[in-house]
Amino acid sequence: MTRSHERSLHELYRRDPERADAVVFGRVTDQSRRGFLGGAGLAAMGAAIGLQIPFAARMPSGLVPVALAQAPAAAPRTLTFPGKAPGLTLLQERPLVAETPEHMLDDAVTPTEKFFVRNNGLMPENVPADPNAWRLVIDGEVNTPLTLTLGEMRQRFPIVTFQLQMECGGNGRAQFQPEARGNQWGNGAIGNAVWTGVRLKDVLNAAGLKPSAVYTANFGADPHLSGATDRQSISRGVPVAKAMEDHTILAFEMNGQPLSLVHGGPLRILCPGWPGSVSHKWITRIWIRDREHDGPGMTGTNYRMPRTPMVPGAEADNANMAVMESMPLRSIITSHANGTELAAGTRQVALRGAAWAGEKTVRAVDVSLDFGQTWRSTTLGQPANKYAWQRWETQLTLPSRGYFEIWARGMDQDGTMQPHTPANWNPQGYGANAMHRVAVLVRS
Ligand SMILES: Nc1nc2c(c(=O)[nH]1)N[C@H]1C(S)=C(S)[C@@H](COP(=O)(O)O)O[C@H]1N2
Ligand SMILES: [Mo]
User: Fold this and answer.
1) Using a 6 Å cutoff on CB, does residue 264 contact ligand 1?
2) Which residues contact 197 (CB under 8 A, 6 or more apart)?
3) Confidence of residue 64 (pLDDT cuts 50, 70, 90)
4) pLDDT value, residue 28
5) Which residue range(s) make up the domain with 60?
6) Are residues 238 and 353 both part of a single domain?
7) 118 touches ligand 1 (CB under 6 Å)
8) pTM assigned to the model
9) Which of 152, 169, 284, 300 is the most buried (most CB within 10 A)?
10) Closest residue by CA, ligand 1 atom 18
């Protein structure tokens, strides 16, 4: 972008800010959404950054600058909770739901204090003081129904430790238009912690699966929001083959500490790569069924994706919905928060982030500084083990001062990339994985 273009934009903004917006950004179609400020706001942003958008000429028509698109109408509420870091975004108080802003996910292993929280009901109150006294029942299509205490499990089965990412099925939901039902997650319903436990497979083998065993059905101790004792907050499950994977565990430690209550302690399932909702917290019973489980969270449009695309915003045909399995590919920038103002004169930016792809691995993460016209590769690490996320990093050189958007786009092992906008709209908003965009500003 040439100086004269910058100057003419300056002049156009001064004379006719509305028209300048239209020239630079095209027609903005979703002004009502997410507190978009409109033409005057855009002009204000221009003024605030000195009207330097060095790559403005490459900005796709109609693109809302990320500095504005992601600016919430009101300041987000933050979580205050024992053991949790300041800065998590509170999405709901009852049930408790809190997201980790992307820039707080900058650790290779997500500290427990930064790990997102997603409850569907209340938290259990009568948890035994001694975690080893916690009981788990295995019944249904097994040869020998079992009741095991956590203490017995520790004695009886090999103890394993893995770095595993766990992501809510609705992560990215706020990207969908029209708005999908549920918590409006950004990209921060994800964490990559170190989990210790026993393999679910070992416990199921001890009970002995019958040939009729098809699906698990998970039950936990968390009371339903209504207080009704005959209702489950959530009861999901997975096909037996997923339950029998080496990395599906009954976890009792997170990051080397006894599993805290808010994360499902004393005992939870960690079933990585699939929606977080199959990683059942406060697990008390695993019923082995001879068919797909039909508990709360399994039917209708719950954790189900359209088999063939549906009209966005339309009523779903339940017969067209199938259980969501692997989570999609996603990459995030964690070194810089959206809207970061870098020190005057900054030209070198050390960029870092994370990437993961449900059951798959990530082959590459590329970044763009010019609204996606050109891309450069980053250095991508290998996962610590299967189902751990991958870290990536690169050094970026800014050509000048101004307003820049850094875009990150992952590619999975099969060569599939993240889209510009989320595809496969569904009523409850699963699987939105558009590339992550972060604005940075340099004044001079
Ligand atoms: N018993 C129980 N398990 C549960 C839930 C719940 O509400 N109750 N929420 C699920 C959902 S939707 C997610 S995304 C993860 C969140 O785990 P976390 O709170 O430890 O991050 O737990 C899952 N396990
Ligand atoms: Mo979730």
Assistant:
1) yes
2) 159, 160, 249, 250, 251, 252, 253, 267, 270
3) confident
4) 39
5) 9-69
6) no
7) yes
8) 0.90
9) 169
10) 117
